[in-house]
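User: I'm new to structure prediction. If I give you an amino acid sequence, what do you actually give back? Let's try with this one:
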Amino acid sequence: MFSRSSQPWIALMAVLLFPLPSDAQTVATTRCGTGVHESEARGAVLFPQDQIFCALLADPKEPRSFVSYLRGEFRTLDDPAGKGTNIGSVGLGDSFGLVRWGGSRPGEGVQLDLVGSIFAQFDLGTPSNDLINADYIVGLPVTLRRSGFSARVTFYHQSSHLGDEYLLRGEEIERENLSFESIAVVLSQEIRALRLYAGGERLFRREPEALATQLMHAGIELRTRRSGPRAFVAAVDLKATEQHDWSPATSARAGIEFARSGAAGHPARLVALMLEVYEGPSPYGQFFQDNISYVGFGLHVGL
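Assistant: Good question. You get back a string of structure tokens that encode the predicted 3D arrangement of the chain. For your 303 residues, that looks like this:
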């Protein structure tokens, strides 16, 4: 039926379409789900599939995918106080590994990634759920892990835009042509169920000039030992900038994290349902000079 010369190509297609089961294991998996496939544990790996730095649970600007319902105090045109506003907050974020250089032990090393994310907020009190603000971020993080210590240095660009429906509400709304580049550094130490981190940012080539150039960042996280696929997680994230005389923005989240075993030896996929509380300077680009507060809950994936 098939010629002898076509048999190697048929075999290759069979391997691609019907791969054999793998007994490979993940090595050095941390409590937050990062880890390295054993076939990629040493040496230089091009386009690695895994991560070596744990995502920050309570940071509103952490690249991740989520959907949240929030109720609180947001400035709006109809009510300058913005009290009792219902907001739908959505994020789409992903990270693509470019190259990893393995460390002295499996699961350690240095990795370069490409990340992109969109954060958008919708006014649920309007008939068309008006888009209020959207932040677009693209960055190149360099991450490092050695045992329980990890670090991340990220060069990123952010631009922010008001939604068309929101702009049409009235001439009183002023749009900022907001964009900047930044270098962000986070140092992290895991101590059993706890994780502590601290760092900061330095903005440059910013618009408008009113944007402050310095930001301090710190936080603490708790992940309990898993009971089956479940674990309790809680985190507090603090940010302070000279923009607001170093008054901190506090973001707190707590809830249940679910893990699904990773395929072919890769780390587990994580999904968390969390309560969310925020108070302080707004993390939403077009409203960087405002103070907001809210409570809510959200579904977060890819933590």
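You can read the tokens as a compact description of the fold. Here is one thing that stands out. Residues 37-301 form a domain with the Outer membrane phospholipase (ompla); Chain C fold (CATH 2.40.230.10).
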